[in-house]
Amino acid sequence: MNTAQLIDKLKSFNKEGGDSVILYRLPFTDKKVLQLGNAMSITKFDNKVLSNDGFIIHPFNSSFYSSIRVDQLVHYTYQGTLSGHVSELILPIFDMNLKDDKCISTSFEEYQQQFEKMFHALSEEGLNKIILSRLKATDSFEVNNVIDFFDELCTLYAHAFVYAIVTPQTGVWIGAGPELLLGKTADQLQTVSLAGTLPNMPESEWSKKELVEQKMVTDYMKEVLEASGIDGYKTKGPYTVEAGQVKHLRTDFSFTADKVKGEISDLLMKLHPTPAVCGLPKQQALEVIAEVESNRREYYAGFLGPVNNSDFSFFVNIRCLKLTQSHAALYLGGGLTRGSELKKEWEETELKGQTLLSVLKNVANLQGYE
Ligand SMILES: C=C(O[C@H]1C=CC=C(C(=O)O)[C@@H]1O)C(=O)O
């Protein structure tokens, strides 16, 4: 499809009241995708969802928010940036669907109280790991900056799944996430365990704390794979991956689709939410998070990604922000274990925030974001 044909399609999409725009770029490629379609709530997340072309946006906790599928009326791949004319046709859809939620930053004192409650559950109630997240809200920025923001994230973070999306149900979300939840190419499936964070500097070296945290997540992934009948999966790692201003420990798992006993959608639902965003044991961590955190997470720590020709790439939605009429709200989380210290955890989330904040300041020229 050339630009003139795309513009014709966009005009009829707008005329017919099309409601959703998806921009994304998979890790380690310079191919970007613009997808337009209409968003619908998914009532049952089964294998059918994984066989129709579209884009999935799944919340952290589906008891509170719906899983959304955007169908694929327009699918355009490109490199570089979109033409001014194309941008003019898609930006009003972002504008129209900006939510007016008020987003309030989590203060250090609030974070401390939440940390202490979670720490109590770790030391007294048999929890082994839990993710505490907080909100950091800046002033909002002009929707006109969304495409520049997306392009800049693509340039800076080759390792990440970079996206900017809008649907009437979710509002506007932008992110650059380093964590693959589940990917399928032909008959090959891949997942990863990602855990342990340090500043991305040569002098910061992995200690026992991060190695134990990584092993906990890796053991959980193995349990889930084995419970789905998958044997003979290949593993690689743990190895270090850079993710902007931080680095993580990562282990890869790969296996063929025929090894999965039952539906692949069931495997996906068992993996989500991984201990990288929820905790261990999973159900207990989910309950403590719902009780302790003051933000509802929404689509943060959920997963999202494209489905094409029965292949898919779903990434955990971290290092992301929700853009509202009044704020850009960054969601910042970190894993707590019994060895965690309050100040270090807070600082870790500050560093994770730099992925988006540095771009926010450059592209949207935002100052003073406390
Ligand atoms: C939950 C987040 O990061 C997760 C992914 C990698 C390492 C993490 C950690 O070391 O705490 C987190 O589990 C986030 O960035 O909001």
UniProtKB/TrEMBL annotation:
Domain Chorismate-utilising enzyme C-terminal residues, every copy: 108-352
Keyword Isomerase listed: yes
Organism superkingdom: Bacteria
Keywords attached to this entry: Isomerase
Listed SUPFAM superfamilies: ADC synthase (SSF56322)
EC number: 5.4.4.2
InterPro entries attached to this UniProt entry: ADC_synthase, Chorismate_C, IsoChor_synthase
Reaction(s) the record says it catalyses: chorismate = isochorismate
GO MF, any single term: isochorismate synthase activity
Listed PANTHER family: ISOCHORISMATE SYNTHASE ENTC (PTHR42839:SF2)
Protein name (record): isochorismate synthase
Organism encoding this protein: Carboxylicivirga linearis
Lineage of the species this protein comes from: Bacteria, Pseudomonadati, Bacteroidota, Bacteroidia, Marinilabiliales
